[in-house]
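Annotated sample (chain length 414).
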Amino acid sequence: MIDPLIRSLGLTVMTSIAPVQRPVLWLQVWGLAGMQGAIALLWVIYNLYLPQLLGQFGWPVGVATTLLVVENLMAAVMEPVMGNFSDYRQRWVGSRLPLIALGVILTSAFSMAMPVVAVWGTASVGRMLMPAIAILWALAMTVFRSPMLSLLGRYAFGSGLPRAASVLTLVGALAGAMAPLAGQWILQWGAIATFSLGTFILLAAALVLRWVSPPASPPEGVIDVESGNLPGRAIAIRPLALIFGAGMFVAIGFRLMMQTFPAVLQVNPAMNVGLTLGIIFLAVAVTAIPAGSLAAAIGNRKAMVLGLGVMAVGVLLILVAQTPLVAGGVAIALGSAFSLVSNGTLPFALSLVPSEKAGLGTGMFFSGGAIGTSLFFEVFKNSEVAVGAIVGATAFGLAGLCVMLASEKRGGDR
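Output written by the structure step:
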């Protein structure tokens, strides 16, 4: 009765207030970052040792590439499937952690199985088992990666998402830098020691994440008249397609960038290829936190488009990186720009889907990345340097277009 009376007097009523920005759960975010770093480190170890482990049993070098293509094609299906399954688990059970724990246990088991077979397996047994274990290891990763990273949407909110994601970028970049900067040193450790260390770090990170995670929330998907809980909302195809496209084009662009740069550097004996590539990852790590703050200030989509634009230009500038100084400058620029992109990917995916579909949104981005990686190995891996640079720049531009075409379904510009 009061509201019509006020309106009849020509007054306006404030029907809503600005939403209160909830604080970032930094302890939980750092728990996720530990998992992200462990995953990145295990992938570094896996990629370094896979050709060696296969070659030990007489498999040709090209089989490693074939396995990576097969694994990525399977991951393209598994990532959204497991992400969506974790959404159902969240709604009906109230937690994604049991599924994450299952994936971690499987990954750890297969991580240790590879060096064990390599050291103690006979030639015939090892030749048969090693490719199968490698594929199972990669599939085990897909069981928990999307469910785990989708938790970022529960630990950070609104403009805090890019800042929280910057912590994951920082840790992941430091782990990724191990490949170009310390790859040969890691290979000297031996498969048993290296895979054992990677597995221990993953298990420790999982225990920390479990320890810092809040108690399981009430199920979200059960229809309950008294509580008012409703089933999960349907989701449109368009946002999922844009998430998938962004993931695919970023993956193609990044792969071509990492292929073109060494090809240009190797022409000049004065260039240090490993150091220059390592500078990219170190630049990502150093600029990750400032890039997250910038994205929070100007909006995540604007920051991503800016980063993708700089990377498109930077990939072309690789062609003129003929001196160590210029090469280092281009590497720093590419790494700094990639911070904006890497920080923004998860917030971008999460912003386009309802909160109860966070796993599916995250999985679609990684599915696109897996397809992009497969296309790289199948179509672009042997491309000419100039062609690789042009296609890489185009891929980053198309990723930026996907971001610009997106319209958030919840939470505003993140």
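Annotation: The mean pLDDT is 86.
Annotation: Residues 26-56 form the longest helix (31 residues).
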